[in-house]
């Protein structure tokens, strides 16, 4: 397994790591695509790119936890209607691999696709077998996903009815869902989702490996190039869906004619020595010019950084981070919320004071940390 040079902060809401996807897309463009365009194609380049795709899925699996799983399965930036049909279980649908393969072999006469002109019957039969097995695996995972969702709904409405009709307390849908994620009795549903996500990523890795084993070096390079362009082709992943994101800027893509030494293009990593990580720090150290912050006190002990973050984020889109202070693993019942926009922070200072979070009225005040 590749030794990735970064580890998630368990107290940081996962949606604050959405930049990870953008870094991955840029890495693919700058460091993987030039290798796949080299002539003649080299198997070492194909192996390196495959290892980086494996590293990408290993990284996602490392993030998987009860608190992060909903962000992983439904990333905030992957809600554009024109992109969702190619997504399944938190990332690209494994069926895409087979659709891409068929698209290659159905484009006769193209010079760049000459590698697909002659395919053996055993190879086609093997690809069909892999596809059939993949469909069965995906169907099983989706069925488990549905069952986990039903468990979650059971827990949700138990909490909803109890808070509204037994305790006579105001509570939002988001707050209720957050309570279910930390409830030990219903936590099994969240654990199921984590396992499903991890298994889906393992399936993507194994299917890609099996397909490539049936291809020659040229076919493998073309196939991997197609996959990498899918990773790089999503809309700008750091933009909120509330703001129509611009197309991903591909102006920095290294063109064939501009990269005579494609094995080691400018800013590329040495494929023989270094695993995937972006040229810039994935999660840079805390900057000197901190965003404006808000103190939040009188928190219920069940409030986690994710719950606090989502509670404010649903009203103020400039929220960037939330933190709940602990001692010995137990909440100290206060924390901080960071905003990128001073105006949102000033509104939250007055509007959120006394609001109910997990059954308790919170207290807000100015802060610097």
From TrEMBL:
Swiss-Prot/TrEMBL GO biological process terms: DNA-templated transcription; mRNA processing
Entry superkingdom: Eukaryota
GO terms of molecular function: mRNA binding; sequence-specific DNA binding
Coiled-coil residue spans: none
Protein name (record): RRM domain-containing protein
Domain RRM: 292-369
Database matches in Pfam families: RRM_1
Domain DOG1: from-to ranges: 14-244
InterPro entries noted in UniProt: Nucleotide-bd_a/b_plait_sf (IPR012677), RBD_domain_sf (IPR035979), RBM42_RBP45_47-like (IPR050825), RRM_dom (IPR000504), TGA_domain (IPR025422)
Keywords carried by this UniProt record: mRNA processing, RNA-binding
């Amino acid at each position: 397994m590749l030794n990735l040079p970064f580890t998630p902060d368990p107290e940081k809401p996962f949606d604050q790591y959405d930049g990870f996807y953008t870094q991955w897309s840029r890495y693919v463009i700058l460091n993987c695509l030039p290798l796949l365009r080299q002539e003649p194609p080299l198997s070492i380049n194909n192996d390196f790119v495959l290892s980086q795709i494996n590293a990408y899925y290993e990284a996602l699996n490392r993030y998987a936890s009860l608190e992060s799983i909903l962000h992983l399965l439904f990333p905030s930036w992957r809600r554009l209607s024109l992109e969702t049909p190619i997504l399944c279980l938190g990332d690209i649908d494994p069926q895409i691999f087979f659709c891409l393969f068929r698209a290659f072999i159905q484009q006769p006469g193209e010079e760049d696709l000459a590698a697909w002109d002659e395919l053996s019957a055993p190879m086609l039969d093997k690809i069909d077998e892999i596809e059939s097995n993949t469909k069965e695996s995906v169907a099983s995972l989706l069925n488990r996903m549905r069952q986990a969702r039903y468990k979650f709904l059971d827990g949700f409405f138990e909490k909803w009815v109890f808070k509204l009709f037994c305790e006579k307390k105001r509570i939002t849908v988001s707050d209720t869902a957050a309570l279910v994620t930390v409830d030990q009795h219903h936590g099994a549903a969240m654990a199921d989702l984590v396992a499903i996500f991890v298994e889906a990523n393992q399936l993507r890795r194994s299917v890609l490996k099996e397909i490539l084993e049936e291809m020659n070096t040229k076919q493998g390079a073309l196939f991997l190039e197609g996959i990498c362009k899918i990773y790089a082709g999503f809309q700008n992943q750091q933009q909120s869906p509330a703001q129509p994101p611009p197309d991903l800027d591909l102006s920095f893509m290294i063109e064939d004619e501009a990269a005579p030494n494609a094995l080691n293009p400018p800013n590329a990593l040495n494929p023989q020595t270094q695993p995937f990580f972006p040229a810039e720090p994935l999660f840079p150290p805390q900057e000197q010019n901190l965003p404006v912050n808000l103190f939040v006190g009188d928190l219920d002990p069940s409030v986690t950084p994710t719950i606090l973050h989502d509670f404010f984020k649903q009203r103020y889109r400039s929220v960037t981070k939330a933190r709940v202070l602990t001692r010995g693993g137990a909440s100290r019942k206060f924390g901080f919320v960071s905003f990128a926009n001073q105006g949102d922070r000033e509104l939250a200072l007055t509007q959120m004071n006394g609001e109910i979070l997990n059954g308790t009225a919170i207290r807000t005040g100015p802060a610097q940390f």
